[in-house]
Amino acid sequence: MGNKVHPTSLRLGITTEWSSKWYAKRDFRTLLQQDVTLKRFIRTKLRAAGIARTEIERSGNIVTITIITAKPGIVIGRGGAGVEDLKVQLAKLLPPKTKFKVNIQEVANPAIVAQLVAQNMIEQLEKRLPFRRILKQSVEQVKKGGGQGVRVMVAGRLNGAEIARTESLTWGKLPLQTLRADVDFGRGAAFTTYGAIGVKVWIYRGDIFEKKAVEAKAN
Q1: Going from the N-terminus, what domains does the chain have, and what CATH number goes with each?
Q2: Which residues, 6 or more positions from 99, have their beta carbon under 8 angstroms from its beta carbon?
């Protein structure tokens, strides 16, 4: 089951939260479509900023968009020019006269955020670096960042080979079926001249219940 179910969706409401927080009695399809469009636009436009996650919250007539990034300076820009430009473009994607605000949050430890590790691997693959070196560097990055386990996988025409294959590297523990385990998952694709190479990353950051117990003792 662990390899067939998305690790994040499996733990929704247990150890992870929804990236879209709102309830709709009507127009659910329209609002969902808006969320998908907004998240896709932000991920594409701010690719260099290292977007870990985009959260959208709707309260009344106000839409709050929270961008969690590893490089907030790129998003904000000089004197806030980047954010203002982003707001202008987001306004075009939302219905007219929709009130919204944009919040920027910085990632505390990018080394153990699966989506950021996957994006870093994608950038290196597109620069045609050897995939084995990329796998080893990614695992070392998670080790130094404090992760308790990691699995990185690449699939496609690796190094331009004629036959596509899958290669992976694993270190530490990775309890995919334990619901209290804080397992982060990220994926993407590197588009090279010889085809697309899929990238997947699983990172185990410890058990949620253990963390809460430790914090309670500390207080």
Answers
A1: 7-106 (3.30.300.20), 110-215 (3.30.1140.32)
A2: 61, 62, 63
